[in-house]
Every structure is written in C-alpha cells, then in structure tokens.
Specification:
The chain is of the alpha/beta class. The protein has twelve helices and eight strands.
C-alpha cells in the first residue's frame, strides 16, 4: 500500500485535510474511520467541527431530504446542488459525492464526465458508486481520469428493484463468494475504499481481511475498517423507516415538533414577539417621518 503523505491543507484549520492517502494510512495503522452523511452547509459545518474523517453527500438525499420513497429519483443536478453546500461547510473531512442512479451505468465516458462534475463543480474530493464487477470498467476509467472512487457493495439501494427490497446480502455461500469477488475486483480497479452495506458481520470482517483498501461498514458489524451512518437516522430526523443497524444518538425530530408547536401557541396567544424581539425607532425620527407625510403629530404635555 502507498504511504505517500498528503499535502497540507491551505485553510486556517490546524487539522490536516483528510485525503485518500489518509484513509489508507488509517487502515494500515488499524485506526477506525468515522463517516457521516450531510446534504447542507450547517450539517457539514457541524460534522467538520466534530472531527469526522469523511462526509458522504449520499443519494439518501432523495429519501431523507427530498421525500422520495427510494434513492432512484434524485438527479445529478440535485446531487451537485447539495454537494456544493456541503463543500462550503466543511474543509477538513474527505468529501465524497454519491453518483446517482443512471449517472454512470449506461456509458463509461458519461460516468467519467459526471464524476468530474462532482470535483469541478461541487468541491468534492472523491465519488462513490454502487456495484461490483459490472461497474469495474467505469471505476477504472474514473480513476484513470484522476478521480478517487469509493465502491459500494452488499445492499445497493439503486438496485433495490433487482434485489427485491431492503434485504441483507451475502447470506448464502454462493452470494458470499460473489461479494468477495466483487470486492477484490473493485480493489483491483482502483477503489480507495469500499462501503459494505447490510452484509453479515462475519462476511464483512472476512472481506476486510482480504482487502488492502479500507472497508466502511453500514449494517456490516464491527469488523470493517470504519463505519458510516445516515445522519438523519442518527439524529432521529427521518421517521418513515429506521434500519436495524442505525443507532439513534438524539431525537431531534421530536424536539423540532415540540419547538414548532410552542412557537405556534405563542403566536396565537399573542406572546410572541415580545418587546425584547422588536426594534425601536427614535421618537424624533418617528415624528419626522409623520411630518414628511403631512400627518399631525400627536399632542403631548411637552408641546402644549
């Protein structure tokens, strides 16, 4: 594995920029890699401050932000729009743009162009795409163009219709072998890391041991090189579906509902805004304003 050091970050943040090389170094040293998703500036800024290693602008955007039932509807332009916001909010983590459905499957040249847009237009450092041996030509071409690629195996949401739903993958000997062969092919094709989603823990650990590049698990047990979660699952902000593997660290959805209801109640009761929430206009300026309109000034004791 390469041990080439990354260049220093040009920003004022004293922490070094996390790079693809840093991912490899963490794998070599056995240091766990922490990855979360973001789709906007404030979330990216908070994740940067928290010290996560990488931020994935995932196509989960389609579900948790845009309200679609799956990830298939999100477009390249929508992904780029949100990726730009994330890149403005975070400078230290490795930023990974998720290539949406049909942005790389039909044509290798189109895959390279779309991957390049994530770096050129949206400030991403790498891209992620789903699939194994079938996408190896696209992975090779994108890497040859100088764009780091993260693979994604196991439960691949863009293949939901083909997989027959949200199901754990690799539960038979034949399926497990196919996943291993896909992982080795992606590594040979140039992927700097591979996401393993909804894969039995024993299998995910075995694949991790067979690879030189790091694996990032989501619903794949503790034996991977790192872990990723959808931030909305972690924060309790998405209630349509919560996967078994997602750990909820906060219930911001309920906190938001409580705050919104309290605001409405205050408005209805006339309690908001109060004097402390208003701006004052000096009396002399108010009188000058009324005079400019030809309106009579209020009679006060001082003017009698």
């Amino acid at each position: 594995m390469s041990t080439r050091l990354a260049g220093s970050d040009a920003s004022s943040d004293p922490r070094p920029k996390v790079t693809v090389a840093a991912f490899r170094d963490k794998r070599r040293r056995g240091e766990p890699i922490a990855v979360l998703t973001a789709y906007d500036y404030p979330t990216a800024h908070a994740l940067d401050a928290a010290g996560v290693d990488a931020i994935l602008v995932g196509d989960s955007l389609a579900m948790v932000v845009l309200g679609h039932p799956d990830t298939l509807s999100v477009t390249m332009n929508e992904m780029l729009h949100h990726a730009r916001a994330v890149s403005r909010g975070a400078t230290t983590p490795l930023l990974i743009g998720d290539m949406p459905f049909m942005s790389y499957q039909a044509d290798v040249a189109e895959a390279v162009r779309n991957a390049g847009r994530f770096l050129q237009e949206a400030g991403m450092n790498a891209v992620k795409l789903e699939g194994g041996r079938s996408v190896a030509p696209a992975v090779k071409a994108i890497v040859q163009a100088g764009i780091p690629v993260q693979g994604h195996l196991g439960l691949t949401p863009q293949s939901l219709n083909q997989l027959g739903g949200w199901r754990v993958q690799g539960r038979t000997a034949e399926a497990a072998r196919a996943l291993l062969e896909d992982a080795l092919t992606l590594e040979d094709s140039g992927c700097f890391s591979i996401v393993l989603e909804s894969v039995p823990a024993r299998l995910a650990a075995y694949i991790t041991e067979r690879l030189e590049v790091p694996t990032i698990g989501i619903g794949a047990g503790p034996g991977t090189s790192g872990q990723v979660l959808v931030t909305h699952d972690l924060l309790g902000l998405y209630d349509r579906f919560t996967p078994r593997f997602a750990k909820r660290y906060a219930d911001l959805g309920q906190a938001m509902a409580t705050a919104f209801a309290a605001f409405r109640a205050d408005v209805v009761a006339g309690l908001f805004p109060g004097p402390e929430h208003a701006y004052n206009l000096p009396t002399e300026e108010w009188e000058a304003f009324l005079a400019s309109l030809g309106e009579e000034l209020p009679v006060t004791a001082a003017s009698r």
